[in-house]
Design goal:
Blueprint lengths: L19 E5 L5 E4 L5 H7 L17 E6 L2 E2 L9 H5 L2 E3 L4 E2 L3 E4 L11 E14 L2 E8 L11 E5 L5 E5 L9 E6 L5 H6 L8 E8 L12 E6 L3 H11 L8 E7 L8 H9 L4 E7 L9 E2 L2 H8 L7 E6 L1 H13 L7 E5 L7
Parallel strand pairs: 1-7, 14-15, 14-18, 15-16, 16-17, 18-19
Antiparallel strand pairs: 1-2, 3-5, 3-7, 4-6, 8-9, 8-13, 9-12, 10-11, 10-13
Helix pairs in contact: 6-7
């Protein structure tokens, strides 16, 4: 059934501004949606916490399945692949109802720790390679509760916030952030290089729906580009010592060998798992590089042409996320077992 781009026909003499209704198939609960509202905004206004994250159409966290009715978009959202559209999925944060709708929609998970204000002292500021800094922080009063894969906001003195994934596991004693310098960035190029050990940093969190699903026993495929390795490092550290840990394969895309700043540590963490594979992939490798070359998603598909039984965690650049999501679905991946954290950099970061 084609549901995307469906046209809502208005009968002569009726008002185009009349509210339509959205029904949740799981519960039968109904809420109104105005023509100018997204499905997500209407749900939140009605007190219904549909799952969501970025609200910009990038991350795909607000994906719903339209069982009846039609929606339209002002602009095609990046976080929805053609394969997902063909299966009847829509992004609630961007979709406008064109008719009354019946949808299957996940709600915000109840197992997420509540975000709070966190005060932390700087333990170390290390430039690990090129433009990447490894910032280690000691939370005052002990580690806050968070799930591997989540992120925190760093709060500057002006009140501006900058979001970074937590690279440490919940049972570790510090919060670790991997920060790529953005040329001219107020925070990454201005504040971070000037931080000194002992200084106090304000954080808020944890945030995010990207998290390790410990109740999913599918083999794990972790795929990262750049500092997208940070939350995957947290997941690896959290899996250490888990007797029920499924097989784990981690693919990390970088440009050059010198940028693989976490390679030795990943190998050490992986050695604690019963079945672990680590595949670094370089897009601009020197002739001396004997490992894999090209794009990280291509390497995954070369090794695993059938992804129908895997859980996939993707973190990194929007280009990688967009390309990988579509191709992985073509390779049989379950749309409900692809978890995404897409990085988007503000020019003044």
């Amino acid at each position: 059934m084609t549901i995307i781009r469906a046209v809502h026909k208005v009968e002569e003499g009726t008002s185009e501004t009349a509210a339509l209704h959205v029904t949740l198939a799981e519960t039968g609960k109904t809420f109104p949606v105005q023509p100018h509202e997204s499905v997500l905004a209407a749900a939140l206004n009605a007190g219904i916490e549909l799952a969501h994250e970025c609200k910009t159409g990038f991350c795909g966290s607000c994906r719903v399945r339209v069982l009846a009715g039609g929606v339209a978009y002002a602009d095609d959202p990046i976080g929805l692949s053609d394969q997902e559209r063909g299966c009847g999925f829509a992004l609630a944060c961007q979709a406008r109802a064109q008719t009354n709708l019946v949808i299957e929609a996940p709600l915000m998970p109840t197992d997420r720790p509540e975000p709070s204000q966190i005060t932390a002292q700087v333990l170390a500021v290390d430039q690990v390679c090129g433009d990447i800094t490894r910032l280690r922080l000691s939370p005052v009063g002990g580690m806050p509760a968070f799930l591997p894969g989540q992120y925190v906001d760093v709060v500057t003195q002006s009140g501006a916030t900058r979001s970074f994934s937590i690279a440490s596991a919940p049972d570790e004693t510090m919060i670790e952030l991997h920060i790529r310098t953005i040329p001219g960035g107020m925070f990454t190029a201005g504040i971070v290089p000037a931080l000194k050990c002992g200084e106090v940093v304000a954080l808020h969190g944890p945030h995010g729906l990207f998290r390790l699903r410990l109740d999913d026993f599918r083999p794990l495929v972790l795929v990262a580009t750049g500092t997208g390795i940070a939350p995957l490092r947290a997941m690896l550290a959290a899996l250490k010592g888990d007797p029920d840990c499924p097989p784990v394969a981690l693919y990390w895309g970088m440009r050059e060998e010198s940028e693989l700043y976490l390679a030795d540590e990943i190998a050490t963490l992986g050695a604690a798992l019963e079945d672990f594979t680590f595949v670094p992939v370089l897009s601009r490798a020197a002739e001396s590089w004997s490992g894999r070359r090209g794009y990280v998603q291509d390497a995954v598909l070369e090794d695993l042409p059938d992804l129908s039984e895997h859980a996939l965690y993707l973190c990194g650049s929007p280009a990688m996320i967009g390309a990988a999501r579509g191709r992985f679905l073509e390779a049989g991946a379950s749309v409900n077992h692809i978890y995404v954290d897409s990085f988007h950099f503000a020019h003044n970061l």
